[in-house]
Amino acid sequence: MVISRKQESPKCDKFINEVKLKQTEKFKYLGTIISNNGKTSREISARTAQAKINFQKMKTILTNKHISIETRKRALQCYIEHVLMYGCAAWTTSKQIQNKLETTEMWFLRRMLRIPWTAKKTNERVLKEAYKRRSIRKRQATFLGHVMRRGKLEHLVTTGKFEGKRSRGRQWEKIMDGLATWLGPGKVSDTLAAVKDRDLWRDMIANAYKQGT
């Protein structure tokens, strides 16, 4: 596979024992779909579909009003959300992808609370009724803190830069850009400096999570 931003991926001929390897647009590695454009849209679509299938399998439990909402939320988190969010710590989430994930989350909660589409309840109201906050950024920030303090290969991959000029046009959003905005400092350099202090980092995550963003 050749990962590139170009519409057509550059051709790359590789041979092992005179046998040409097939160049592919995507493949699955450790349960995660890796695409040749470097984006996570295919992986998230697959995760969303699988999570909805799992929800339907457990529908009789998750929508049972005789079971407390707290118990059903735990079941949702253990058996459904973990499928949806597997590997999310490494996702670069654009606004479009974030909206897709939030739509899927609402799909779960509205069915779990048995809210018909005719009720016309806002997403914020549904979240309050379910006593739930969104957590993808929290997961990413927690993972980032671990990786940065560890200071090994993952640190290099996250903070490293390529030589050369940027491509023309609008630049893709990086994980660090989204986390810096979510956590508060706004600047990536300030965020990376805060990571070194474990207690400060935990407080920043807790404060941002409390805001429900």
UniProtKB/TrEMBL annotation:
The protein's UniProt keywords, in alphabetical order, are: Endonuclease, Hydrolase, Nuclease
Q: Which GO terms describe its molecular function?
A: endonuclease activity
Q: What is this protein called?
A: Endonuclease-reverse transcriptase
Native species: Plakobranchus ocellatus
Q: In the record, what lineage is assigned to the organism producing the protein?
A: Eukaryota, Metazoa, Spiralia, Lophotrochozoa, Mollusca
